[in-house]
């Protein structure tokens, strides 16, 4: 039993002991009244857990309306008997008439219906909230195919590709490695990583671009660690569209 249930149990005992519902305020002195409601509240909570455990054994947990209905039926039956056994201790009531079993059963049914409906309402709200939170979470992007060519100690965010002879050098945020393959195939295996082909021998990711440098008529992309990549005039358009030029 969680501390929240214990706090709720204590609050219910205090409220019922002070208010004295169902005729207990007039029939009992304060000491007997608080003792009576403490016994009723504690037994009701314990039997309520038992009732929903029995219901869960008979009804699938994802069928909340049916689970709630069966839980209400079990709870009302269990608590009607328990409250009646507590109530028939006539010394609590003095000269007052003790309620009958059916009167108490009617009260228990009404209370369990109210509690069951509120429980179902809040359960459905929590499920809707959790489902909405899950739906709003972006699904993780799969690693690009070119990442499979990297050794484990070089796997990371791909920043720059550079071709040399029959090899493509792949720069990541943890290092670089040369892979024997065609540059065209390397670009295809990037699988849509946001970036720009800036030269027939160079590709850079958008995340790696730290700025543009111009040296007379030549243009360079500035990358981390002070590296510079030349920008061919034929590939200016992509950088211009991105606002770098």
Helix-strand sequence:
HHHHHEEEHEEEEEH
Major sheet: 5 strands, antiparallel
Amount of helix: 40-55%
- Computed over alpha carbons, the radius of gyration is 36 Å
Terminal Cα span = 65 Å
Helical element count? Answer: 7
Average per-residue pLDDT, rounded, comes to 85
Low-confidence stretches: none
Number of E-state strands: 8
Strand percentage, roughly?
15-25%
Q: Which class do the helix and strand fractions yield? A: alpha+beta
Shape: rod-shaped
Spatial order of the strands forming the largest sheet: 3-2-1-5-4
Could you describe the 3D structure shown?
This protein has 245 residues and is of the alpha+beta class. It has helices at residues 3-19, 24-27, 30-58, 64-87, 101-136, 183-188, 236-241, and strands at residues 158-164, 167-172, 175-180, 195-199, 202-205, 211-215, 218-222, 228-231. The strands form 2 sheets. Strands 3-2-1-5-4 form a 5-stranded antiparallel beta sheet. Strands 6-7-8 form a 3-stranded antiparallel beta sheet, with no helix packed on it. A hairpin with a 2-residue loop joins β6 and β7. α3 (30-58) runs antiparallel to α4 and α4 runs antiparallel to α5. The longest helix is centred in the middle third of the chain and has 36 residues, at 101-136. The radius of gyration is 36 Å and the shape is rod-shaped.
